[in-house]
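Working notes for the structural subgroup meeting. M.R. asked for a predicted model of this chain before we commit to crystallization trials. I am recording the input and output together here so anyone reviewing the notebook later can reproduce the run.

Input as submitted:
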Amino acid sequence: MQIKILKNQILFYVAAASTFIAGMLHLAIVPMFFNKMPVNVTIFFIISGLAQIFWLIPVIKRWSNIWYYIGIGGTVVLIILWIIAIPARGLAVSELEVAIEFFQIVFITLCVIIVKGIISTRLDQKST
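Returned structure, recorded in token form:
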């Protein structure tokens, strides 16, 4: 039982760390390309980065499933926007972009596992 609890805690912390890292990398893009990006793109990266950093709070505090669903959905939207903006237009993909997408995919995957675990635990409790 203790191993299962520890495993669950690790999932929450790794999910929180992955969204935090993705958010920090989004914010890191702003000063790197500040002179090259239009203002709306700069604002988009700042808001995206801050939202991803904020999202570690609902994950660590284990707020309701709706927060996981919104986090998953928002992160999926960010990945789709990146696919449309960079690879789909034939632009080169940088290591930084690969790292951001990696951490976002890790976040989505772990949140799906967390939500599935929460739902199955609730179903087990109802059936007993």
